[in-house]
Design brief:
alpha+beta; 4 helices; single chain
Amino acid sequence: MKKIMIICASLILFGFTATRAQAVLDKIDRATDKADRAGHTADRTKSTGDKILGFFGKKKNSSSSSETKTTVKFSGVDFATLKNINEKLQAAKGIESTKMKFSGSGSSITLYHAGSTSDILKTLQKASPEVFAEKNIDGMDDGEISILFK
């Protein structure tokens, strides 16, 4: 009989503990559900806001469609000279942006600008006359200028 009483008392004691533990787990579960719902609501709100702002904001990449891309290829140039040329070209009038690539065999600077390749060559000759002198120009095609350092 003593054993039965001890077992019943321990079951009641551990039953209350298990009930409290389950209550804590339920609270945690409800809190995570609330956080999850808040996250979904925020995502939907952001999506709706982006759609609404899309009507009023400027379109992405609209300026790049009107920009011309010209690649200026350099032969026989070191990194310091190429970097100096790139800095001068970024400040030149009519050039929107530049992208520089360096290699020992041949380097290049990609220019995004308004106008044609011949127009940008005139601008380049004004920006850096020693580099873009006619004696250094190895070739010119639509969208490409080759410069050979001697």
